[in-house]
């Protein structure tokens, strides 16, 4: 097996391992549009990281966290619905990133690779970032698992029982930002949300507990990476979108396979 393909598989599996459990919470909390908003703001983070001569992934994390904080503050005014605010932030940050990029005449940025991913171009440094960032996100998620699950089931009851709702929600947003920065190289800014929600949505039909759904989502994400890379090499298709198509095919296949009875999670 060629070295570039080994690195692509390792990088893709690392991303799938991180996106599975986090995607499960996004599905449970019905936050797909929120994840999409953060992903769109990732391009602005890439541009800011380039302008400031720092790691683009760190720019993505900082920008996503800033957008999450802005959303929390805007939600308090209660004049606009949350989905409206998400739509405004998503398109505003994406457009601002593109406009800023247009003014950077002396800087060349491979926009296509950031938008749709370039998993076959993953290098050793990217692997360290993917696995290091993914391990950090998973470790933090394990620590937050019980309080985050509590506010997912019933936020008001969790608050009465002493769960610090706002810090937990803020930490969860930060984890989403980290995983978006980690996954950016694999499937790109425009397709990250699909890798977060499709394997988790597929796993939901067959899981018997929240923990099993999170684990199964990671396994399905890894399978989608393997199938997508195989299809990309077999038919010379874009690797990132091929991974998403493979995840979608697994979801479609799961819909015709008998699953478990509907559960509360």
TrEMBL record:
Bilayer-crossing regions: 6-28, 58-74, 86-107, 127-145, 157-180, 186-203, 215-233, 239-257
GO biological processes: response to zinc ion; transmembrane transport; zinc ion transport
Example of a GO cellular component annotation carried by this entry: ATP-binding cassette (ABC) transporter complex
InterPro entries: ABC_BtuC-like, ABC_TroCD
Family to which the UniProt record says this protein belongs: Belongs to the ABC-3 integral membrane protein family.
General function of this protein: Involved in the high-affinity zinc uptake transport system.
Record-given protein name: High-affinity zinc uptake system membrane protein ZnuB
Organism: Candidatus Contendobacter odensis Run_B_J11
